[in-house]
TrEMBL record, chain A:
Annotated Pfam families: Fer2 (PF00111), Fer2_2 (PF01799)
Keyword Iron: yes
InterPro entries reported in the protein's UniProt record: 2Fe-2S-bd, 2Fe-2S-bd_dom_sf, 2Fe-2S_ferredoxin-like_sf, 2Fe-2S_ferredoxin-type, 2Fe2S_fd_BS, Beta-grasp_dom_sf, Diverse_Oxidoreductases
Protein name, UniProt field: 2Fe-2S iron-sulfur cluster binding domain-containing protein
Annotated organism of origin: Poritiphilus flavus
UniProtKB/TrEMBL annotation, chain B:
Ranges in coiled-coil conformation: none
Matches recorded under Gene3D superfamilies: Aldehyde oxidase/xanthine dehydrogenase, a/b hammerhead (3.90.1170.50), Aldehyde oxidase/xanthine dehydrogenase, molybdopterin binding domain (3.30.365.10)
Any one GO MF annotation of this record: oxidoreductase activity
Name of the molecule in the record: Molybdopterin-dependent oxidoreductase
Domain spans labelled Aldehyde oxidase/xanthine dehydrogenase a/b hammerhead: 214-309
Amino acid sequence: MAKFTLNINGKALEVDVDPSTPMLWVLRDHLKLVGTKYGCGIAQCGACTIHLGDTAVRSCMLTVSSVGNQEVTTIEGLSEHGDHPVQKAWLEVDVPQCGYCQAGQIMTASALLKQNPKPSETEIEMAMNGNICRCGTYTRIKKAVQLAAESGS
Amino acid sequence: MTLVTSKMGRRAFIKNTSLAGGGLVLGFNLLNSCKPKTTEAVVAELEMPKEWYEINGYLKIGDNGVVTILSPNPEIGQNVRTSMPMILADELEIDWKNVVVEQAPLNTDLYSWQVAGGSRSIMNSWESLRMAGATARHMLKEAAAQAWQVPVGEISAVAGVLSHEASGNSAGYGEMASLASQMEVPEEVELKDRSEFSIIGTSRKNVDGKKIVTGQPLFGIDVQREGMLIAGLAHPPAFGMKLKSFDAAEAKNMPGIRDVFSIKLYDEGFKKSAFHHTAFNELVAVIGETTWEVMQAKKALKIEWEQASESVESMSILGREMTVKHPTGMENSDTHNAKLKELNTRKGRVARKDGNPEAAFAKAAKIIERNYSCPFLAHNTMEPMNFFANVTEDHAELLGPTQTPEWMEPAVAERLGLPLENVDIQMTRQGGGFGRRLYGHFMVEAAVISQKMKAPVKLVYSREDDMSQGMYRPSYYATYRAGLDEDNNLIAFHVKAGGVPESPLFANRFPAGAIDNYLAEDYTIDSNITTGAFRAPRSNFIAGAEQSFLDEVAEEMGKDPIDFRLELLQRAKENPVGDPETNDYDAARYAGVLDLVREKSNWGQNESGVYRGVSAYFCHNSYVAQVLDMVMDNGNPIVQKVTSAIDCGIVVNPDAATNMAEGGAVDGIGHAMYSALTFKDGAPEQTNFDRYRLIRHSEAPKEIEVHFVDNGIDPTGMGEPPFPPIMGALANALYKATGRRHYHQPFISDRPPLVG
Ligand code: FES
Ligand code: FES
């Protein structure tokens, strides 16, 4: 066990965990931030996507000890009132079916738009390819990313 | 308005009122003081009332006119949590923006069919939801009539406002709610005419949308409770094995681990239903403080497994009895496939025979014969199996994702030794179902562990546990034969279909009834790999096989594939072969979706470089036709567009139904093209998404168009029907694009053998 002070959603949060614990479980079990989802645990599905700085990363294979004082953003901290342009676009397009993958999708999409505010269709496809949606909402996801890009994120 | 007899009784609002308030950590907490933060994108913030008045088991009305509607059925992504309350709200005649939705707990006294299965949620509850709304509207009118001392017939109710024109009186529902709750439940109520619907048939956004996009706790896996422990389970690594012994010394000493023990799920002699079944009755449970610690400790377990002996169990399934036989030994996909091929050359069980197929084939000028197959599939709901249980001496509280709370409750009660009424089951939103959560052994597992630990426990499966646990889509095989005479008329048709462990055959579905000489046979192979319903069971293979075959027959006959199907349907409609009651489809509705898809896809006006395939199928009481447009990019097939035409009767929430239909198309293309679960020595060879391939974003159709037939028929199935036919459309488009027919799923690996 070791103590870590993490910078999550703009707050300094302390946890006492084994250094090899993935951020996914630190967030979910220790910090009760359960918006970040478990889907595979091996960086294959994207359900656990968070931001490290401006980059989308898979939290299931990111150990707590490797995070240091980097800025971590989870779905809960993407916007204060749930009104990030990507979240708004998601609601406008009514993307979710079961909804389970969507936090990860939104985190990947918002990181993409930060780095590339006007992505082409192919760039969207490539960026979103690591996020599985078992319900098959891909066409809506694309539409929502395009809508968010248009409305300027 | 139509006058119908009311079936609403005045019964307790919900079985256990303590559950309605404090017990719920998930679901809609709007009833408590915490109001959602909202943006312009979602419904305006609602003031909560000071007082609620229970009108019936489905709704309560606040003194300020806000209405809470309880949505009875499991929400697995089919959006019933929005569409079921919409039906009620329409009959109640309330403004949708004044509605809040709550998930109802299991209550078999109040609701029927609290099941997410068979695409029946809306269909089975259509009447009771309307009745609940209409009854409440009537009672509100009665209250107003009494308050104003005017005849009830003169009161109108529009958008939550009661008024009496002659006297100029008017009041909101909230003002009359208290009095209405004391009114007699009417013997008869008026239901709206379809033309009067104001919510049904309009698109309303997902009531959980805001919570989903902000990452609020909604799912079973998100449940957190004071003092809650996490449990993981180790099951045999292969089907055909069982627990022999285990050494937990190391695991028990690992950080955060509270206990390790084995559990037995069902006692010998317990009369199971098919929904209780599991391949692994004895498991090793690891209980600890956090999920990661439990997952690590599970890896440190030293477990010895041994070969299980043969088992034969009789189980009930929806009132029928079935025998499930699990042979001994470790099975292989190669052996399965060889056996299926071999059985296919023998005579099967005759399921239907019209005319004289043998004679017709004997005199046919040409016979087309083709074989089709598909592998096992794992459901792979994005949210793995999990359940929360808090079992005390005399009470069990269960909370989590299940498609069949109603059918699991007796098993949990019996296993725990508690009376049924002391078992309370609540449902969370569920991260996908697809049939997997019809089989609720994980609920019993969680309950048994909690009972033993005397603590609240959340059982969580890892992805690997989930994918290797069983209840898979069976592996199937089918042979189709068509006989043509000299003039290229179709004179004989033969389908023989089998599988491990069930056959995918529907003997009385199209084209049965449309061909004079018809033969349908089936066969099965027993297996110890457990299987279950997977979105549109059996249809999810046989539709694609049949629709690819019909495409090939049409081509051989020199006919347009849509014309060919329509001609057969015309025959089935005008002069059906066999007893028309036996034919399991309505030829006119079937033809209807083909006509619609032909029109909407501009069939026949082919763009160059775009390859099209068509398919149509009937299942779960609904009809779906799809046209798939494919282009080739550097030898890779790209699905450009899917056009779907659907007849599922009245569409309650069109945009949400469109979403389901889009998902069905993506799901069907994905599984037919990419997915497979194979076995070696009883063990699945794919246990996570590195080896198990699911369709990804870039492989999905670029565009999906969905059209509904507007025929005013009461709603039929919607969750499953858009899934099966697309596999046929895909195969047919692939043929046009590549010049080669694809017969064996997943198509991505259905390549011609290398030569030389
Ligand atoms: S849970 Fe991290 S990528 Fe799947
Ligand atoms: S919405 Fe269900 S997995 Fe994406």
